[in-house]
Amino acid sequence: MNPEASNQGHDALPVRADRQDLVEGSPVLDGELVDYGPNKRRATRAERFTSWWQRSPRVPAVLKSRRLAVQAAKDLVVRLLRSPFRIAGAVVRGVAVAARWWRSWVRVSDYREAAEQSEKLADKFTDIRALTLFRWKVTGGVLVVGAVAVAVLDLLYGSRSLWITGALVSVGLAVLGRRKDGSPGRKPVLAGPRTLTWTMDPQVLVDAFRDAKLIGKDESLRLVERALRVGDGRAITVDLPATRKAADVIKNREALASALAVDEVQLIVERVRGNGGHAGRVSMWVADSDPYASPPVRTPLLGVQRWDAWRPVPFGRDARDRRIDLPLVWTSLLVGAIPRQGKTFAARLAAAGLILDPHTRLYVADFKSGKDWYAAAQVAHRFMSGDESEHVLTLVDWLVELVSEVQGRYRRMQDLDDLVCPESKITPDMSRDPVLDMPITAIFIDEVQVPLENRSPVEVEGKKLTAGGYVGELLTWLARKGPAAGILLVLATQRPDSKTIPSNLRAVLGSRFALRVMDWRDSNIVLGEQMNTRGYDSSRLLASHKGVGILRPDGETDVGADVLAMTVRTFYMPNEDWRTICQQGRALREAERTLTGHAAGEDSRPVLDHAAVAKAIGGGSAAEVESGPEAELPEPLASVVDYLGDELASGDRDFVPTAELVSALEVESTAFGRQMGDLGCKPTRERVTTEDGVRQVRGYLMADIGAAVATHRGAGTDDE
Ligand SMILES: Nc1ncnc2c1ncn2[C@@H]1O[C@H](COP(=O)(O)OP(=O)(O)OP(=O)(O)O)[C@@H](O)[C@H]1O
């Protein structure tokens, strides 16, 4: 690649302006300056030393900053000037403490109190009195001996000895009267900052686990692999005490990060699975600094000639800098985030892998109607960009065409022998055989909430439906049946809420990628029910971390087949790289003669068999679409329903403890109980099995919650 050209590309930022309205004049630039890969130069020895010095927990903070050092010097001068007064104060306090102790001793207070408590003071009075007299005599004796000793010393050594004795007594009294830790006002209200020291002191790690309540007071950790330097951080593997679960450590990662004094993005906690692991083995990695603050990495696809759609597509890197590839075939992908977090960039990465395989067929529906997808028009079998109702109706036609295509493929697979098609599933050879005509076909829909929310009427087999409802039904059917036949969906949405993306559609989208969202509910909508309680909540990601999200893949990734989800920063693929990849994809298709549809200049209308499609997706569900959207539930019932998800209907659970709901929904328990009561849900007590055995806890019966939901939905619909 020409370096000059590439540098130019970095400086020339994406132009976001209306194409038709562009007349002569300076372009309006919208974008972010990104300093990445190729410009990175090796740090010098001095720079490396400075970086180590700044990060090392062994170097005191005052030596890391000039401002802090000056402040520390000033504090020292003040301390020195104040020291005579502080010593005098300590001596006075020491005299008071000594006098109090002597008084209690001479009065035999402990003996007296014990006798009083056992109501035997009268019996013991004579003994106490005798002891008191004896102690007075001892006191008198010590004073006389002391006075004589001082007089003798004075005679022998002069007044110097008096000064020395006085100084020694003062030091003793000052020590006695020093400000000790533990009593109010006797320690600084704000102690210094906590810093990460666990790599040096395993006890700190154990304490952190205890502070985070991940192990009990009397429990400890076992070291499996000592702390090692891995990448730009340290890794350690430990075994939890028996019965403690690694899943709970992952869930409470934030508490552990706080106990270890690091930001949670710097802490990666994974369960070690398989042969070398067990349910209580935890592998931890702590980054030296924010792992996502470094410049983003360009997609490795830029350097490859072609890609195989069956290979997982390079998607990004995790905090430990491990490459994460995303399997796309036989699954579907949902990408969700608030605006400007990198959804389109993420969806385009998935597309890039497929574009570089000339045997794939692409449908691209860009409801963002910007320039982000424009370059894909040269390779896409069907392409459109716009957010009007006509575009939604075109999408309906595409989806109907794809449903027919899937049905056709299954029919044709039945006729193939077992050697070519061993299961009712497409294989790599089948997808590349031009005679079979079953290429991997992917439909990309950016801002999928636009068609899903469209209320234009469509008539299907005599029934009136909303276009959005019909799109939802078609997408659900395709996500369920399509992947095995080689048809996959990639949907990106700015509005990951339960009303926009129907729950039955979400349930069948295998892979999920959640960039930053507004709250844990939206995060669960993208990632799946209760993922926040398992430690995966994309609302906790930082706004400055563009392209960073939580990936829940459907299938094996390089991190491991059993990893539920992971935080990934997507590769950076700005517009000029995207254009290069699309041009390369076109050249590959031209060479293989696989250019079809829109890209080949033949914008054929889809062949539609509405009757067969309506039959396939089922009349019952279509009727549901007709009845309009479900009435909105009041809070906190809506959040409870969101949290419980499918558990509410599945009947797997009869009861949910209040404590679980309060902690998952992050609400105040009294107010929550009152609001639930107002909505017709009264708590009960049930016996449940917890870690500490069977206990009776307060909570709600699923049936009661279900009944309250039905009542409120019914009421809402009646009102309309
Ligand atoms: N992996 C990445 N590394 C660094 N920056 C990124 C990355 N991915 C995206 N960005 C930055 O984030 C910005 C927004 O990305 P993108 O257009 O994909 O957001 P979006 O979520 O699709 O936005 P919208 O909702 O407005 O369509 C881009 O301009 C890009 O500079």
UniProtKB/TrEMBL annotation:
It comes from the Bacteria. Keywords: ATP-binding, Cell cycle, Cell division, Nucleotide-binding. One of its GO terms (biological process) is cell division. PROSITE patterns: FTSK. Residues 310-524 form the FtsK domain. PANTHER family: DNA TRANSLOCASE FTSK, SPORULATION PROTEIN RELATED. This is Cell division protein FtsK. It comes from Umezawaea endophytica.
